[in-house]
Amino acid sequence: MDKLKQNIDKGITEFYLNLDIDIIKKSLEEDGVDVLNEDEKISKFSKRIKFMNNAIIAKEKTDNLLDLIANKFREAIDKNIDKPIASLKKLIEDKELSVQFRNLDKLTEDEIKEIIKGKNLVDLMDELDKEID
Amino acid sequence: MIKYTKGSACARNLLLENGFDDLIDFPLDLFVSGLGATILYKPMINSDGRIIFGKKNTIIEINDGISFEAKKRFTIAHEIGHLIMHKGIDIHNDNEATMSWFNNKEKQAKNGRVEYEANQFASELLMPSAIFYEKQKGIKFSPQLLRDLSIFFKTSLTSVTFKYIELGDHPICLFHSYNKTVKYWMRNIDFPHFIIDKTKLVPPEDSVAMEFFEKGKIYTKEKSKQPIWKSTWLELKNWENDNDFNFYEFCIITPMYNTVISVVWEE
Fold first, then answer.
1. For A47-56, how does the pLDDT look when each residue is reduced to its tens digit (9 = 90+)?
2. Which of A44, A45, A58, B24 has the fewest CB neighbours in a 10 Å radius?
3. Pairing mode, if any, of strands B226-228 and B91-94?
């Protein structure tokens, strides 16, 4: 009996799913559903989901980019590569940052992120973006 | 009837395009990411926020020393305004002066139209007009109403008051004083009384604002609605008697900046 009921339910659902969308809407309206309002809600919801999806992807990408920048500088300090070290030193001097930042060997990645900011950071992000692309 | 300015219309469109009624419970950091920019919190001197446009990337730096969530939200929303409306500005610093609603005309011209637009944008982004109007509709005006709106929208009392002037049911006016000098005043379009222009003058002696400047008096929440005479802030006509009116003053005081916003209304 249960199986028969399930088959009937399935049949009714499939019948409705294969109907013309306008007929379904009309039927829902007859049952008191505000179809226009529901349509708008669904449309808003899907726009929000799309936006959030893009936002999460973009955030992940930027976080990775910022980590990459800090890593590159960390590596440069460890390997004693002149040019990035000179740039970092100049940034520290220009910004008159506190003494804690003077010892490059002890800089953490967070501190490197702290030093490189503003226009310098955006330029670096643009540059590395190109490399990744 | 809700009237949209360039800034507020832009914010409204942005919300609509992305399926949002409001951003009350949506993290603004994530909203910024969705718009292709990144928020970074950093110590900043003489600046609450700034936007830096690169060729491809954009960073919004927010002062991590801002202690009030409402102010932080407004700063972020203001920078989003620049991001959407003013692409191409190289480096942009915003502080109390650029984000103040109450700069006098001289200052406003100096800071430029872009700041005004960004403030209008931020106000609409955080307090969508249609929702704001519905939330206050039919509720008697009081300081508590402003507080309730401020909590609901997660914005400051000042920005809520400014929005109420535009959209509120009850006609109110306000006076912004700084360092014992009236800097600016505004009124609802339906406010039926004549305001004596006290710009650049000291606040009236019998005003609640002056009580703060002279005696440091700040009323508790319960007593923040103080009765005043009509003649305190407004013109009393020859044929009028102060005793025939019920006027009140509620002060939004920021001791750190020595500013007072006096909200004045009649019951």
1. 999 999 999 9
2. A45
3. unpaired
Question: Does B19 sit within 8 Å of A43, measured CB to CB?
Answer: yes
Interface test with A, best of B16, B23, B28, B33 (most A CBs within 10 A): B33
Contact B91 A118 (CB under 8 A): yes
Name the band, by pLDDT with cuts 50, 70 and 90, for residue B267: very high
- Is the domain of A27 the same as that of A76? no
Do A104 and A68 reside in the same domain of the chain? yes
Of B30, B40, B91, the CB nearest to A55: B30
Same domain, A77 and A25: no
Are B40 and A117 an interchain contact pair (Cβ–Cβ within 8 Å)?
A: yes
Average pLDDT over residues B238-245: 94
Residue A39 resides in a domain: no
pLDDT of B54-107, one tens digit each? 888 999 999 999 989 999 999 999 999 999 998 876 556 666 666 665 555 555
Nearest to A127 by CA among B114, B234, B55: B55
Please report whether residue A64 resides in a domain. Answer: yes
Question: What letter does residue B26 receive in the DSSP assignment?
Answer: S
pLDDT at B247 over 70: yes
Q: Is the pLDDT of residue B201 over 60?
A: yes
Q: Do A81 and A24 share a domain, yes or no?
A: no
Which residue among B40, B42, B57 sits closest to A126, beta carbon to beta carbon?
Answer: B57
Beta-carbon separation of A62 and B57 below 8 A: yes
Q: Are A26 and A36 in contact (CB under 8 A)?
A: no
A121–B17 CB contact, under 8 Å: no
Among all residues of chain A, which has the CA nearest to that of B58?
A122
A34 touches B: beta carbon within 8 Å: no
C-alpha–C-alpha distance, residues B231 and B264, integer Å: 12
If pLDDT is split at 50, 70 and 90, which confidence band does A87 have?
Answer: confident
Cα–Cα distance, B11 to B124 (Å, whole number): 6
Q: Do A25 and A62 lie in a common domain?
A: no
Q: Do A59 and B30 touch (CB under 8 A)?
A: yes
Distance from CA of A130 to the nearest CA of B (A): 9
Specify if A91 maps to a domain: yes
* Chain A residues with beta carbon closer than 8 angstroms to that of B31: 55
Q: Which of A88, A85, A68 has the alpha carbon at shortest distance from A130?
A: A68
Where in the sequence is the domain holding A103, given as residue range(s)?
57-132
- The total domain count for chain A is 2
Mark whether A67 and A111 lie in a shared domain.
yes
